[in-house]
Write the structure tokens for this entry.
Amino acid sequence: MILIDKYAYTNKLRHVNPIIKTIIGTLFLCLSMLFNQRLVLIGIILLMSILVVCIAKIDLKNYLRLLKIPMIFLIIGIGLNLINIGFSSEDMIYSFKVSKMYIGTSVESIKTSVYLLFRSISCLTCVYFIVLTTPFNDLLFLLQKICISDTVIELSMLIYRFIFIFLEEIYDIKKSQELRFGYSNVKNSYRSVGILGSMLFKRMMRRYEDMSISLDVKLYDGKFHIVGDKNV
């Protein structure tokens, strides 16, 4: 069980109606997209974090660790947004010339990047509030209640399931390689990563075949029956 799924089933808001939690998260997500003021975005970030850490009683260190994963990609994107390329350096506060082009950054790009950073974190905390306090099965049941297409729901469920299978296989293969000193140096690390990719593909195909056989044995009729909280 991955950390997100573990907290979804053990947090203090676990038995709160999923509709209420989803409405709160979605409402503040929409506000994050509509408002441009940084103070509003910071307020949403703090509010969602307080709900997750103080009310749902999710460990702060693990919450920050979960935020850190998408933050890496976010910072890379923000860094690229800071870079301006043009034929003039008039609007740039810092630049250097490459051939006939100027590469640098401007006050406007800094303002835009800071705004994007706060908006992205605000949206992220809203999504985490829903995901960390509501089991995925309840979310699927909620989607079913609001008449979302069965195909979309079933695809979501299968994708979510295969995320677990994917992470489990990576962990098992990498652990086996580490026990054989597969990452003891750079050369062995490159070789081990290549083997990991090859074995992962084969194992995923095998797990898919096993799942298909299991569904056939259970007389799968082409539709998954989702069970959730009847109070939703």
About this structure: The first helix runs from residue 3 to 10. The helical segments are 3-10, 18-34, 38-55, 60-82, 107-133, 136-145, 150-179, 186-217. The beta strands are 84-86, 92-98, 101-106. The first strand starts at residue 84 and ends at 86.
